[in-house]
Amino acid sequence: MKVKIHQSWQPYLEEEFNKPYFAELVQFVKAEYDKHTCFPPGKRIFAAFDHSTFDSTKVVIIGQDPYHGQGQANGLCFSVKDDVPHPPSLINIFKEVEKDLNIPYPKSGNLERWAEQGILLLNATLTVRAGEAGSHQKKGWEEFTDAVISILSDQKEGLIFLLWGGFAKKKVSLIDSRKHNILTSGHPSPLSANRGLWFGNGHFGKVNEILKSQGSTPIDW
Question: Where does the Uracil-DNA glycosylase-like domain start and stop, copy by copy (predicted)?
């Protein structure tokens, strides 16, 4: 099955695209987009892979599913389009960056600037029906994105995985901790952050320390 995804990923994911579950997933997604308003826009479903190529990926951030509000989701986890108000989790992410690295809070919540530096902003579920959080979960997306994480773990070395919250932490079993770096914390959502489980994790500075120790270019957060 031909999927419009950046060519650098194609050799690694082609086998996945040809599995029966993926064909069923494609039919489900097509039907949902035909019958309902869904996010992100169809051409943005695989945007995370378009902005962070297989070879350039050096950091992986795992989200759960896209924002389900009008005009928010742009295909990258935690990211919104330019000029869209920042959702609560993204606000807390930027506050932690500001605190950790003394970087001014940004105007735009569009994280394409992170992705272009090799951060794969991967939601476990890549689509959602408008106004219905989690509506496309358990339809096959998780099987696909788990395969992506496993392939990255197997095929690359020295990646940095940021696992925020209980859902993301469950992905640790897919990652070979002997050759990759895994940083965990609470989720940046207000519920978790207000309980002291997010702020102060220092992940953004730690990522850059690891990258510099590997001789790689640090992220301009």
Answer: 49-211
